[in-house]
Write a structure and sequence with these properties.
alpha+beta, 418 residues, 27% helix, six-stranded mixed beta sheet
Length: 418
């Protein structure tokens, strides 16, 4: 009997182009059918959803049959993916872009949150005018700015400064940086063939260019999330690319090996930081301001509650700070930036941030699937939501995102003349 009703539900779901309100009930019934028995006092054409809510399964069946027999596009119904489409249809009714279904590679999502990715271990940027030894004919290439130590690329002999011009014998010309990254990534153990341009400094131009081919086998690589660069003896740039569970310990390691007291100014670069773990945001905020409010949290059926840092400051508050942000600074990175701005610890420079005022939790549904679900909302220490407009910088910049010097130069000027 249960199997019969289950099959009915399977036959009653719309394709992805016709996600309608009844899809919600169909999915819930499908899930419940797999886990509990039907109510004995209900006819087979109904299913009890609790709270006195019932679904008329016969009506859903009739709708599905009408689509099969009368809908103009006979190929639109994708029955093999019906469960995936049903779940996506249910979630679409929430109108929440952050609550979404992970229908494959759940563990890969965990790896990404933890700072791991299946790739070769390189940082890349678009190659163009202004780069060292720029050669116009290789404008479509991508410059390797850093190679992760002991990663696949490092072990294969690839060097920082090499320019990627082909991936698996296909030119990179015309590709965006995210497309190149996607081509380089892949399953652990799989091979990617790279054609690189390298400058041989032992000879004189134009014979300095050599082309090399590398077969690199992908592996899980941890990308350090913090980089420190000194502009001069008194000024440094601290770049945080992601908030993983290792980021705070990386900051501790950097700060213990250097005398931050010797610095007059510190630039915290959070551009293109899409966030990560909330607990990491709390710890990092504490590193700069100590035990103060990081944000306010609004959980289900609860009032606003203050959330404090769980770490003591390790970066002296005597050091002037500027935080650089842009439209890709999001979520947990906005928490850190917003707290530093509110408490007067740093001047915010750049363009308005992304504006994600939601805290999402990743739940495991099966070995392959999971669910990102908005579990609470957060607000700045001033009890202001960043959704949807983001944080407003104290000093707005409208420079092209690729023009690094404008951001850094402005930040340095503000450090020296706040």
């Amino acid at each position: 009997m249960v199997a019969q009703i289950y099959n009915r539900i399977i036959m009653m779901i719309f394709n992805k182009y016709l996600v309608l309100a009844f899809l919600l009930g169909a999915l819930v019934a499908l899930i419940l059918m797999c886990q509990i028995n039907t109510k004995e006092n209900l006819p087979l054409s109904f299913f009890d959803l609790g709270r006195n809510e019932k679904i008329d399964l016969d009506e859903l069946y009739e709708v599905k049959r009408a689509i099969e027999e009368d809908y103009v596009d006979s190929t639109a119904f994708d029955e093999p993916n019906i469960e995936k489409l049903a779940i996506q249809g249910l979630l679409s009714g929430l109108n929440d872009p952050y609550t979404r279904y992970v229908y494959t590679d759940y563990e890969r999502h965990i790896d990404l949150l933890d700072g791991f990715t299946s790739g070769i271990g390189v940082y890349i940027k678009s190659y163009g005018p202004g780069d060292p030894q720029y050669v116009p004919q290789f404008l479509g290439g991508f410059l390797i700015t850093e190679v992760v130590k002991n990663g696949p690329a490092d072990q294969s002999g690839i060097l920082a400064g090499d320019v990627i011009v082909e991936i698996d014998n296909s030119s990179t010309d015309g590709l965006r940086i995210d497309q190149v990254s996607d081509k380089i990534r892949g399953e652990v153990g799989s091979k990617v063939e790279l054609t690189l341009l390298r400058f041989n400094e032992t000879v004189v131009l134009p014979a300095t260019l050599i082309t090399l081919k590398f077969d690199v086998y992908r592996d899980n690589v941890y990308f350090p999330t913090i980089q420190l660069q000194f502009i001069d003896e008194k000024t440094a740039i601290l770049t945080i690319s992601r908030f993983t569970d290792r980021t705070y310990s990386e900051l501790e390691q950097i700060s213990s090996g250097l005398d931050f007291l010797s610095l007059d100014g510190l630039i915290l670069d959070l551009r293109n930081n899409s966030g990560g773990y909330v607990n990491t945001a709390k710890s990092l905020t504490g590193a700069f301001i100590g035990d103060k409010i990081v944000f306010y949290q609004k959980s289900r059926d609860k009032e606003l509650e203050p959330v404090f840092s769980d770490k003591n400051d390790i970066i002296s508050e005597k050091i002037n700070m500027v935080v650089i942000v842009n439209g890709n600074t999001a979520s947990a990175a906005e928490m850190l930036a917003g707290a530093l701005q509110f408490h007067g610890r740093a001047i915010l420079v750049g363009s308005p941030t992304y504006g994600k005022g939601a805290i999402t939790t990743l739940k495991k549904l099966s070995p392959e699937t999971g669910l990102y679900i908005t579990s609470s909302l957060w607000f700045t220490p001033g009890k202001i939501s960043v959704s949807p407009d983001g944080l407003t910088p104290d000093k707005s910049l409208n420079f092209n995102s690729n023009n690094e010097n404008h951001y850094i130069d402005t930040a340095v000027k503000l450090l020296r003349n706040p």
